[in-house]
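thread: overnight batch results

M.L. [08:02]
morning all. the overnight job finished for the chain we discussed friday. pasting input first so we're all looking at the same thing
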Amino acid sequence: MVIRRQTGEDYEEIAIRGAIQDKRTEGVDQQYAWHSEYPYEEFRVVDAASGALIFGGEVAAFFQDANFLPAEWRAINIVYVGQSLGRKVERQALDRLVSHSTLQRVYSESSPDEDVWLGLCTIIDTALHFTIDPKAEVSTSDEEDDLHIQRVHEAMGSSSTFQKKAATALAEGALISYFDPKYNVLLRGTFPDAKHSILAECYELEFQSLMLEFNALEQGIPFASAARRAATCHYMQLPMHPQDGGVVYVEELGADFFEQMTRHYEL
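M.L. [08:03]
and the structure it wrote out:
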């Protein structure tokens, strides 16, 4: 079977071979055919001779499990990143989506043969990494350093406002800066910046950089954008003071990387 993908006016083709377990035709050299009509939302695999249905379903769902295809063929293209939190921290994602003008625009501008998927993400862990510049001149006492470290730990506590709001804003800004989604206007190319009020506490706590891991390895779903290639895990490090010459570090890790690492540690 040959699967063809259209990107703009260009086409890519890949030939695949596979076995379909069907007890009705066991031991018989059976030919199958794939049928999908525009806008290609659903598909059917049928007996080529009789037309009898073997199986079928949604194309998008099928391709998410089609690991025999290249990651970029199965990738979800990120076109917008947003957060549900507003002035009232307790607002839920569904409340935000009820009257979301950008979401309505995405739907209205999408092609009939494109699916719009909504993905909910959460921050499952935060951690601090302390660094010391050996060339920096010491201007504080040990007592002042201890007090500052204590303040940072208190601010990062699980019940703090930082964890509930600032961490989400940091993740949102980092993802927008990294993926550069089509429909995001704010924060594109300007994050992080000391002028952003939500980052005031981060600068007060003297954060120097932000590291974020966007991981969908467990789901097996590659994510991509016009700026980033398809990968199941994206890692980014953004300097909080880019004007001082901070370096932006990004890495896209696919499933093959993690499979190799697993085999390495099993040896």
